[in-house]
């Protein structure tokens, strides 16, 4: 039999298709419905979820929040906040900030002060090939913990060289894609002074640039939001050292810390929080005669000697607004665990974003200190 005959449809199939068409024309509905765009397909389902009684919705989210105290169980709370806008607003109002719960849940928690009693334990992984740094939340809290596994991802940063200067871009996504940058870090020519910039979205009071200004920005290929979005929130400086690497580094920080908040603020809708100035300096290590090296008590959280290791404390009498009673309370601790793994433990009044930015200044060589 020829090939074209084997590929042709049989009379029975043709009869079935014609009968289905006739049946649709005879008994079907001839009205034509408009096609729903892809971006509006989920609005109907969102309406069902948002139509819940407020008391019932609050009770559901309260039970979910109470049933998962730590990660990875906290992902259920994040999943509920992603259902629709009403669920998100309710979750933001119910979830406690790190200052009260001692943990990180929502994205807004990354820019809120840490707990007062015990620090939040994190670790940083460095990739020397592409000059990236990733911050993770330790899922197992303790002294001698294994940090080789994957924790809960929090922030990422990439180092860019601008001549002798260094610039770090901080993002909330692991691939550092555009649209996820929440801050940056810039150094001077000697790489001993760093400025921390925090990205703050424009509020309603900001005036839009004029048409002439927009044309100039377009010709220069600049973003008009950058000039008003990035705000200087702190400085980290390293003192000049004549003995280079023979003595420890001396670090001085001046950070604008956010005030205490009772709820997890939404970064898209909340107004700019009030700030307070905080001065920190590194705790000087002591010389160990037997080991012939400089030593600090990291309480089992640091295992490798490095010039990058430090502990930041507040001067006596300056940390009372944040519950720091003396100059022995360590606000931020950073140290080396493995070749490319470092611990980062922070507490109030620093946030995860600020602590991560301060720790990034320790990487890289200092031209006048080493």
Automatic annotation (TrEMBL):
<dbReference type="InterPro" id="IPR025659">
    <property type="entry name" value="Tubby-like_C"/>
</dbReference>
<dbReference type="InterPro" id="IPR036047">
    <property type="entry name" value="F-box-like_dom_sf"/>
</dbReference>
<protein>
    <recommendedName>
        <fullName>Tubby C-terminal domain-containing protein</fullName>
    </recommendedName>
</protein>
<feature type="compositionally biased region" description="Basic and acidic residues">
    <location>
        <begin position="37"/>
        <end position="46"/>
    </location>
</feature>
<comment type="similarity">
    <text>Belongs to the TUB family.</text>
</comment>
<feature type="domain" description="Tubby C-terminal">
    <location>
        <begin position="110"/>
        <end position="364"/>
    </location>
</feature>
<dbReference type="InterPro" id="IPR000007">
    <property type="entry name" value="Tubby_C"/>
</dbReference>
<dbReference type="Pfam" id="PF01167">
    <property type="entry name" value="Tub"/>
</dbReference>
<feature type="region of interest" description="Disordered">
    <location>
        <begin position="1"/>
        <end position="46"/>
    </location>
</feature>
């Amino acid at each position: 039999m020829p090939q074209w005959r084997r590929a042709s449809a049989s009379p029975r199939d043709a009869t079935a298709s014609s009968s289905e068409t006739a049946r649709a024309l005879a008994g079907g509905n001839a009205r034509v419905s408009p096609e729903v765009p892809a971006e509006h397909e989920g609005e109907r389902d969102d309406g069902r979820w948002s139509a819940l009684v407020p008391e019932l919705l609050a009770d559901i989210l309260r039970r979910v929040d109470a049933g998962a105290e730590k990660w990875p169980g906290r992902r259920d709370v994040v999943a509920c906040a992603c259902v629709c806008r009403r669920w998100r607003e309710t979750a933001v109002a119910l979830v406690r900030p790190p200052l009260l719960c001692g943990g990180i849940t929502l994205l807004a928690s990354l820019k809120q002060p840490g707990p007062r009693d015990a620090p939040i334990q994190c670790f940083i992984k460095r990739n020397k090939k592409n000059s990236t740094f990733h911050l993770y939340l330790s899922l197992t809290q303790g002294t001698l913990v294994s940090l080789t596994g994957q924790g809960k991802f929090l922030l990422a940063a990439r180092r860019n060289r601008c001549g002798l200067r260094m610039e770090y871009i901080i993002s909330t996504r692991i691939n550092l894609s555009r649209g996820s940058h929440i801050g940056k870090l810039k150094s001077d020519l000697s790489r001993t002074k760093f400025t921390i910039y925090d990205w703050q979205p424009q509020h309603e009071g900001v005036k839009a640039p004029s048409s002439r200004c927009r044309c100039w920005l377009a010709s220069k290929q600049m973003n008009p939001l950058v000039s008003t979005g990035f705000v200087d929130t702190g400085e980290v400086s390293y003192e000049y050292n004549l003995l280079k690497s023979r003595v420890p580094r001396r670090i001085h920080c001046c950070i604008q810390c956010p005030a205490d908040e009772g709820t997890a603020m939404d970064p898209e809708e909340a107004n700019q929080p009030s700030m307070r100035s905080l001065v920190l300096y590194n705790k000087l290590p002591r010389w160990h005669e037997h080991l012939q090296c400089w030593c600090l008590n990291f309480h089992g959280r640091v295992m490798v000697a490095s010039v990058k290791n430090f502990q930041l404390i507040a001067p006596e009498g300056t940390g009372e607004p944040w519950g720091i009673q003396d100059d022995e309370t360590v606000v931020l601790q950073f140290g080396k665990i493995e070749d490319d793994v470092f611990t980062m433990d922070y507490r109030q009044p620093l946030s995860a974003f600020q602590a991560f930015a301060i720790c990034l200044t320790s990487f890289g060589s200092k031209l006048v200190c080493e």
